[in-house]
Task: structure prediction
Amino acid sequence: MLILIFNLIKRICWEVYLLFTRLPPTQAWVDPREQALMVKYIQNFKREQRQQKISMVEFGAGSSTFFFSSFVDYYVSIEHSLDYCRELERMAHNQSHRSVIIFYMGRNSSGFYIKRCFEQKSLQSDQTSRIEIYCVPRNAYSLAAYRLWATGGRSTYTMYRDYIDFLSVYFRDTKFDFAFLDGRARPQVAYALLKQLNGPNAKVFIHDWNQREAYHIIEREFYNIIDQQIESTQSGGGGLVVLEKKFENIGQRNINDIEWKYGKEPDWWI
Ligand SMILES: *[C@@H]1O[C@H](CO)[C@@H](O)[C@H](O)[C@H]1NC(C)=O
Ligand SMILES: *[C@@H]1O[C@H](CO)[C@@H](O)[C@H](O)[C@H]1NC(C)=O
Result:
């Protein structure tokens, strides 16, 4: 009974919130110089690859989803927040020329399955790519109160297990040319992503590199920085690095079984 009332109140609050808030900006929420660096890599690759279709995956959906997807043929975005996914439905409505599909995912012992989905078919038959967004909720602290209590600490694998593992389960045989990490648990996602990258030259972009030193572990252990744009003074840290994996076969182990080469596993990792 209490839960019912709580959910009803939550629903009303959400509707009120929708009434009084404006849409998030449709420009990607990164510094324009960082955005330009990413676009440069994608366009150079497109020039070299002529016929081949270009695929990109993103962790942490948002305005960046609508922006970067227009440069590639296939765009997959993974988001942990259900509330934000509803916000994305609203953003999609405002971009009726884009084909957008948002899957709300569940998981049971046989794997991930689609609970429900939102689909917007493009009104015009333009050539821009289809956007696929997968909402994969976090595992721990799903109650709002816990979430508030747990903010501030680093995201661990335990909290975001499904979100981190989603690609390697649901897209086991798909390889991506580009990845953009702008969501939760970026270091762990970067590790899990290693086996989904299309060859040794696939690029991973990580946002907010500047002040978040905990992220730098992935440079010591798993990736080389090949380019960067770190002059941004954006709130949240800003700064973008372009990474390639250190060697071809890195990242085959499960996240619990990594052999750390350059130190101990950080205490927030698992
Ligand atoms: C769509 O977004 C633009 C700005 O990006 C805004 O001016 C316009 O009012 C929005 N349209 C709707 C239907 O929300
Ligand atoms: C998992 O969920 C899917 C979709 O609802 C269902 O078809 C399947 O039988 C479920 N598996 C188990 C083991 O519950």
About this structure: Residues 33-245 form a domain with the Rossmann fold fold (CATH 3.40.50.150). The chain has one domain: 33-245.
